[in-house]
Amino acid sequence: MERVAFLVEQSGVRIPCLLNPESVVLRRASGVRSLRSVGGLAGAHAMADDPLLQTGGGTTEIVVDLLFDVSLIETPVAEGEKPVSDVRTQTLPLWQLTEHSDPTQSGAGIVRFVWGKTWNVRAVVAALAERLEYFDGEGAPGRSWLRMRMLRVDEPEPAQQPAVSAPQSQPGAETQVVEVPPSPATAESLESPPQRLDELAYRMYGDSSMWKLVAAANGVIDPFHIPAGFSLRFPPLQELLESTR
User: Fold this and answer.
1) Domain that holds residue 75
2) Residues facing 131 on adjacent strands
3) What burial letters (b/e) apply to 30-55, b meaning 16+ CB within 10 Å?
4) Are residues 176 and 111 in the same domain?
5) Highest mean pLDDT among 136-140, 159-163, 187-191
């Protein structure tokens, strides 16, 4: 099992879980459709195959099998509160991503599937199926096997920012060091999660996708488990690009 996380784009909420790496399935459907007319499917007697229409685009589907367990995933508990015993409290945010009450709301239902330094996929949740196990005396399940089907979506267009917002991309920039703060200790502090590596990369270089190079340059394997007090180095952009070639 591998630890992965989902980042809800709109709220910034992080949903941690475990993943069986043998169960990742990728499917691609190209933007090709059978040509149809007003009266139905277009065709010709002399053709062996139906004529096709290239619509462009297509869909990339990702299917993952996830594990949630109240005894395996650490859940911050405020003083005086009981530990979470119902695993559905951990899977509820994913279910909510499939219920779009306001389809006009920008970014609704979009998540990032992040696994180490090699997986960072922006997607929407298309379907979920959950099997619950280990029920207690009150009927609360303690473990969830959840199969999720996601559809990849395009990365947003980078916003135009003034040059001062990306200091490490400017000529003559010097290496900057940022110390990682401690993780939040209570459930209330989760409303203001610690700054993410992609956010720091955007602040330093004006491009959030640079987080992979920053992680490689600092020897970070898992961007979600950086020890508190760890000093992240942000060299000038040219130096960062040369160091990771």
Assistant:
1) 2-26+59-152
2) 145
3) eeeeeeeeeeeeeeeeeeeeeeeeee
4) no
5) 136-140
Q: For residues 124 and 100, give the distance between their C-alpha atoms in angstroms, rounded to a whole number.
A: 11
Is position 117 within any domain?
A: yes
User: Do 121 and 102 lie in a common domain?
Assistant: yes
188 and 227 inside one domain: yes
Within a domain: 33: no
Burial class (CB in 10 A: 0-12, 13-18, 19+), 111: buried
Is the residue at 133 inside a domain?
Answer: yes
From residue 30, alpha-carbon distances to 41, 50, 57, 153, 154 in Å are 19, 16, 7, 14, 15
Q: Confirm whether 123 is domain-assigned.
A: yes
State pLDDT tens for residues 56-81: 778 899 999 988 888 875 555 555 56
With CA atoms as reference, report the closest residue to 123 among 135, 115, 131: 115
In tens, the pLDDT along 214-235 reads 888 888 877 777 777 788 888 8
Q: Minimal CA–CA distance to 89: which of 8, 9, 143, 150?
A: 143
Give the confidence band of 105 by pLDDT, cuts at 50, 70, 90.
Answer: low
Alpha helices per DSSP H over 81-221: 88-96, 197-205, 211-217
- Number of domains making up the chain: 2
Residues 148 and 174 placed together within one structural domain of the fold:
no
Closest CA to 109 of 204, 6, 20, 183: 6
pLDDT tens-place string over residues 17-62: 888 767 788 998 887 877 666 555 555 556 667 777 777 778 899 9
Pair (22, 111) in one structural domain: yes
Give the tokens for residue 77.
């508990």
